[in-house]
Design brief:
Layout (H helix, E strand, L loop, with lengths): L16 H7 L25 H9 L13 H14 L3 E5 L2 H12 L5 E5 L4 H13 L3 E5 L4 H7 L4 E7 L11 H10 L3 E5 L4 H4 L9 E5 L13 E5 L1 H15 L5 H10 L3 H21 L3 E5 L9 H7 L7 E6 L4 H13 L5 E2 L9 E3 L11 H7 L5 E5 L5 H15 L4
Helix pairs in contact: 1-3, 3-10, 4-5, 4-9, 11-15, 13-15
Bound molecules: pyridoxal-5'-phosphate.
The site of pyridoxal-5'-phosphate has 14 residues, from helix 4.
Length: about 400
């Protein structure tokens, strides 16, 4: 939503994203506050009846009610759009609300979607079960095999939806190749950029049409609030999603928008530092005798290492996974639980993007609802542990993991 700020000093053109992350937003109020104000209000008083009528007819000309627009939400949207290199963005109540809004805006009964089998669990359920009830069919394909995507598209395909890297195995897909496939059949490509963030990866520059965010993760960065967003062309954001949102109402709360807006000021330094720590830990884990395999795009052993480095500014990101050695699945599960339970610094939690390092067992949590066969097919084995690396000193996290891993050689 673009509401002109009274008294704004426009920023010069061509600023670096690190600068935009700190400087984009809304102009100060008449009081001239240096930190962006929080507009915690559901409604806005109108100066006169004529202005009120005009703003109801043209919401972009002024605020009336926070379901149709709020300055703190506008500030968040502008900053995120600037970071993604998008013409516009729209904030939503959560990441899943952004995906729901995208589906409601772009799809109708009879339409077809192609998406990776390795997407976020709730995304798979939303497309495979909920959208299916409304006559939208989704084909689920390989995360990494471009030929499967090409074979799955058909004349009724309206949307390709990808996420890279994925949770928990950090599989990478080729955004530019998928954009070419989508555009070849007149469909759009949307990319969930939650894991890499615009600091490492800007899908729109690689040909994607839309970027989806869960602001709950790295954008906030300190695990405080839920938020989400869609970034894309002004035509789609202001012409399709904003009018739909005014009716559908899964809006981003002003307080949450303000928290994430402030969080984005430190996004670049956090993502770079947390990724550095993740690389240090991934290298150490790869050499540990109790570790079977490490999944991290920044390691040369990663199957899509070259693609990841080209697509993600040469950085692997802040999330990694590793499996512990064992003779049988039950032993692998027991050892993974032992490693997790032996930590004293890491938090046992399934979310990610926090400055605190989070550790979890995907097979019994995020992928717990799958059958053992489905889990095997997805590669989410019982010995797998996911680490969302934070800002603690990596030496302390290494010691925290060593406590359990060193014991694995003796335990059964
Ligand atoms: C968390 C997450 C989501 C959903 O976001 P919420 O804010 O929890 O609704 C979507 N995609 C990915 C990759 C995520 O990690």
């Amino acid at each position: 939503m673009t509401t002109t700020d009274p008294g704004a000093r426009p920023l010069p053109e061509g600023l670096h994203p690190d600068t935009l992350a700190v400087r984009t937003g809304i102009a100060p109020s008449a009081y001239g506050e240096s930190s962006e104000a929080l507009y915690l209000t559901s409604g806005f008083v109108q100066p006169d009846a004529d202005t009120s009528a005009r703003r109801f007819a043209h919401p972009e000309q002024g605020y009336t009610y926070s379901r149709t627009g709020n300055p703190s939400v506008t500030a968040f949207e502008r900053r995120l759009a600037a970071l993604e290199g998008a013409e516009a963005a729209i904030g939503t109540a959560s990441g899943m609300a952004a995906i729901l809004l995208m589906g409601l805006g772009l799809l109708k009964s009879g339409d077809h979607v192609v998406c990776s089998r390795s997407m976020f669990g709730s995304t798979l359920r939303l497309l495979g079960q909920e959208f299916a009830r409304f006559g939208v069919e989704t084909s689920f394909v390989s995360q990494t095999d471009v030929a499967e995507w090409r074979a799955a598209v058909r004349p009724g395909t309206r949307l390709l939806f990808a996420e890279t890297p994925t949770n928990p195995l950090t599989e990478v897909c080729d955004i530019a190749a998928l954009a070419a496939i989508a555009h070849g059949v007149g469909a759009r490509l949307a990319v969930d950029n939650c894991f890499a963030t615009p600091v490492l990866q800007r899908p729109l520059a690689l040909g994607a049409d839309l970027v989806i965010h869960s602001g709950t993760k790295f954008l906030d960065g300190q695990g405080r609030v839920m938020a989400g967003a869609i970034c894309g062309s002004r035509e789609l954001i202001e012409g399709v999603f904003a009018p739909l949102m005014r009716t559908a109402g899964m809006v981003l709360a002003p307080f949450n928008a303000w928290v994430v807006h402030k969080g984005m000021e430190t996004l670049a330094v956090r993502v770079r530092a947390q990724s550095d720590h993740a690389l240090t830990l991934a290298r150490w884990l790869e050499r540990h005798p109790a570790v079977e395999r490490v999944f991290y795009p920044g390691l040369p052993s990663h199957p899509q290492h070259a693609l990841a480095m080209a697509q993600q500014a040469g950085v692997g990101g802040a999330v990694l996974a590793f499996s512990v050695r064992a003779d049988a699945p039950e032993q692998a599960r027991a050892r993974a639980f032992h490693v997790i339970d032996s930590t004293r610094v890491c938090s046992i939690a399934t979310n990610l993007g926090d400055v605190k390092t989070l550790i979890c067992h995907p097979a019994s949590t995020s992928h717990g609802r799958l059958s053992e066969d489905q889990r095997q097919a997805a590669g989410v084995v019982q010995g797998l542990i996911r680490l969302a690396v934070g800002l603690e000193h990596p030496g302390d996290i290494q010691d925290d993991l060593a406590r359990g891993l060193d014991g694995c050689r003796n335990t059964t």
